[in-house]
Design brief:
Order of helices and strands: HHHHEEEH
Strand order of the largest sheet: 1-2-3
Helix content: 55-70%
Number of strands: 3
Length: 171
């Protein structure tokens, strides 16, 4: 499990770098494309996506640390991540642990069928990841909408060679 989590962290880092590079190249190529709302929104979508993946990777590192800490050895029952302040009584009944990927967390399962999430993942990771991912998705949709509006306006104007407001060109 620990190696899988580290592999996911590496994938998150590579994805974040790729998205950030895409955002930067979109902004750099904006001059060649001319003004419009599409490129900045595409860049925002890429940067927000990169930030979401980075924040999720940060949370994965915390979960990997908790998983590594719970992998046997002296004093590992119950798993150290499950021994949180306020959960001392429940920790005595922990029989298993698992990893939750959405929302991200280290889950301690008790003998009565209940479970609770340890506090290893900082509280800002899951909401921050969700907000950044939603920002990326909304920006991507808005960029597509802006591109569609520009394409329709250009088609209405005959490909852009006629002045705006004169559908049939100069008379």
């Amino acid at each position: 499990m620990f190696l899988l989590l580290l592999l996911l962290v590496v994938i998150a880092v590579v994805s974040a770098v790729g998205l950030a590079g895409h955002g930067a190249s979109t902004l750099a190529a904006r001059r060649a494309r001319g003004p419009g709302a599409g490129p900045p929104l595409r860049a925002l979508a890429a940067f927000a996506g990169a930030a979401a993946v980075t924040m999720y990777g940060w949370g994965l590192l915390h979960v990997a640390g908790a998983a590594m800490e719970s992998n046997g050895g002296a004093g590992s029952a119950p798993a150290p991540p499950c021994r949180m302040r306020g959960y001392e009584e429940r920790a005595l009944h922990v029989i298993d642990q698992s990893v939750s990927f959405l929302p991200l967390g280290f889950v301690c399962e008790t003998s009565d069928g209940d479970d609770y999430t340890s506090d290893d993942v900082p509280g800002y990771v899951n909401p921050g990841t969700a907000v950044l991912a939603l920002t990326a998705a909304a920006s991507a949709v808005a960029a597509g909408y802006a591109t569609e509006l520009r394409a329709r306006a250009a088609a209405r104007n005959g490909g852009g060679d006629r002045p705006s407001g004169h559908p049939r060109g100069p008379v």
